[in-house]
Input
Amino acid sequence: MSTLTMPPADRGVLERRVQIARDLQAIVPGEGVITDEVRLKVYESDGLTAYRQVPMLAVLPSTTAEVSAVLKYCHENGIKVVPRGAGTSLSGGALPLEDGVLLGLAKFNRILDIDLDNRCAVVEPGVTNLAITEAVEGDGFYYAPDPSSQIACTIGGNVAENSGGVHCLKYGLTTNNILGLEMVLITGEVIRIGGRHLDADGYDLLGLMTGSEGLLGVITEVTVRILQKPEIARALLIGFETSEQAGRCVADIIGRGIIAAGMEMMDKLAIHAADDFAQADYPRDVEALLIVELDGSLPEVEHLVEQVTKIATKNEARTLRVSRSEKERLLFWAGRKAAFPAIGRISPDYYCMDGTIPRHRLPEVLAQIRKLSKKYGLRVANVFHAGDGNLHPLILYDANTKDELERAEAFGADILKLCVAVGGVLTGEHGVGVEKRDLMSTMFNDHDLKHQQRVKCAFDPKGLLNPGKVFPVLHRCAELGRMHVHKGSLAFPDIPRF
Amino acid sequence: MDSGLRPQDERHVAEAVAWAASGNNSLTILGRGTKRSVGRPVDSEYSLDLSALDGITLYEPEELVLGAHAGTAMKTITEALEKNRQQLAFEPADLSALLGARPRGAGSIGGILAANLSGPRRIRAGAARDFFLGVRAVSGRGELFKSGGRVVKNVTGYDMCKGLAGSWGTLAVLTHVTIKVMPAPETSVSLIVGGLDDEAAVALMCEVIRTVHEVSAAAHVQQPLTGRSKVAQVSALEAAATVFRLEGVGPSVRHGTKKLEARLRKAGALETLASRASLKLWREIRDVHFLARPGDRLVWKLSVPPACGAAVVGEISSALADTQALFDWAGGLIWLSVPRDPSAHAGVIRKAVAATGGHATLFRAPANMRSALEVFPPLAPGADLLARRLKSGFDPNNILNFGRMYAGM
Ligand SMILES: Cc1cc2nc3c(=O)[nH]c(=O)nc-3n(C[C@H](O)[C@H](O)[C@H](O)COP(=O)(O)OP(=O)(O)OC[C@H]3O[C@@H](n4cnc5c(N)ncnc54)[C@H](O)[C@@H]3O)c2cc1C
Output
């Protein structure tokens, strides 16, 4: 296991473990509190399996009142809390703490209301992403953000991570697709923000909560926007000899004013792995493969397919196929959507990165990644949300080989620093968690991070919710509250006055 | 207010705010001042005018991204975008006529984002906050900080752009912003049904936006108001107008139009507006032209679940004579004009809105009324606590637009 410094465990809390379990049992009776080692092991890691820690105990509430009482109790007793949905986070966001309560939201699995007139659905946070679409598709609707983990991941986790999917370019991330939340602060206070109307009032707490990685509050209800399904969708599978050509093609499509429903790119290693895994019938002798999905009405889609075909040809596409049926379209996607497990089959372990770059920097970033791959002696497969510049290099390694995990992590960190250096960011959709925590200072200076932490202080002044995540150093709120301003005159007397 | 500061760059802004904070001199933050009359009046010693923070710093049409200093005039931005057949998809309003402010196009991009103002396309494309990718800002501590970036997919740290959108300059002074821009639609057409009452209109709008994909906006203008339109086909109606806009590539708009025409014919008399007239009418709706005059009436902005729009207005007008309503966002955004009254009829209006979970803002009213009343929707206790804590974290000395959103903060 990789080393990671987490907040020091509170011995006093650990000593009171039995009493704490008893007190929590009074709040969440029956099977609601888990204390035995074996059952706790289920929660020891999330999708980032390099890090493991069995929690002090786990609590599985099923009502907002229970969540509120549990949090209030933990707050009063100085106990840390780690919220968890399905545990598919790829950044260690749901990694437990030795002295912390793991708060599982899986029992919040009901769809509370479907309101077609206002185009929204009200759901509990433990409902899976796909279950929302399944609940409304009979009426011709769907929930747009579609992470590849959508069968398993929960909407609560999606909100906490601001998750994306392959349709983000046109339909946005989670943050663009939710209207309201009910959440519980660490003090137990229940707060409702937004609703079924389009613009929430006051400060944009909805925007701050989305992507807050479980550090600000526990989400107990979500109102999501649902969209009508497009009449038809078609996908193009386009192969190129170089990633430069593929990148140019993407730029030209957008430059022509076409916002595709999805634009995904894979490099050769990813193409082969995905094709072997899913038998997607991908062309195998190309260096870059592009999937472009177009949706809308039939005449619109036909028109756009024609345009994109022209642009692809101009960019010297080697192969081009347009899906002729829904079955074929889904087959085009099957390979891409299974890219992660497919890589899992050709390597004992893989490490998934998630930086975003300005799209036009792609060729140089890929070239650099190839160089780093040689330097670290590890293979890498690239999967890329090409439309919005979100890069997923998958680093192949074997944890059982001496120092390969360390090398993979160092390689990954270099890739992310590269993303930042070309004007991009550390994480496009997987979150900072514990994984990128110590890299935050490559993107943000002290002032930037302190202002973010002032948001944290407004929600959770004692720092009990999911500590050890996102921030490399968590300053005490009292210290952050102080003003360091010296009385004086304007140092720039040249600021014009009127 | 007696004196103004006009910083030339963000370093100046930081310096000016730090100076103000050290002496507890409060500041009124002005982008270009066009929305100064919105919110509670700020009683400050100085104003901080950002109009010198001017100019586009980054525009890459193929990357759909634009960066600009916060004081950049909207006109500068829209002109640059138009040259590349692009646009701000959230369709920001120019409320100068409604607010009796300076000439059209004078507002700043920072002001639009700080107010999170979105126009008719909001139902399809999203709000201003949804396009706000990156920010540099100076908090009330006089410290410059940044958040976000120039890429759309970014979850690195809290989304401070959202936190600052709609904060009306009370948390930090925006100095530079990066926004997502979108291709402008190739074609645009509007269809109008005349003579529907509010209830039928809202029901129709809600049905249409969930069945006809190409519809990018749906609005309803009540009867006497249509006479104020400069679009002949609307003013000649002498009836209420329920308007739908279709946008996209040619074949798609033609397809949508056919589908929509078939549905609308059942609802009433039908008019079609080609692109130029359509553009003009949607500007009038976006800019709330219909309620601009007479300038002494009070104007409320209501945000409600779209399907409740007609019922809310129905309840208010049954308690209150002489109300006029403009419905946008398929019923979800209501601009309501009411006669002047010391209470601004806040009780009746907020009660009707509260039942739907929505909220109401007193958008246009004389200063004395805005300082006596709650202009922004009163916050529930929990949200109020968080708002106050955020304010004191970012602006502990209460020097940025003090009291503009809520009394005492
Ligand atoms: C194979 C695979 C593919 C993936 N593909 C994608 C993809 O395409 N796009 C993408 O964006 N992500 C992807 N992910 C990452 C992951 O699925 C998402 O981040 C997802 O949103 C996590 O949801 P979860 O329910 O599993 O949350 P968890 O992993 O349980 O938790 C994630 C974070 O959210 C917090 N949290 C969870 N529930 C709540 C709540 N109710 N209130 C407050 N905080 C809460 C946790 O504390 C933690 O910080 C993928 C993961 C895997 C394993």
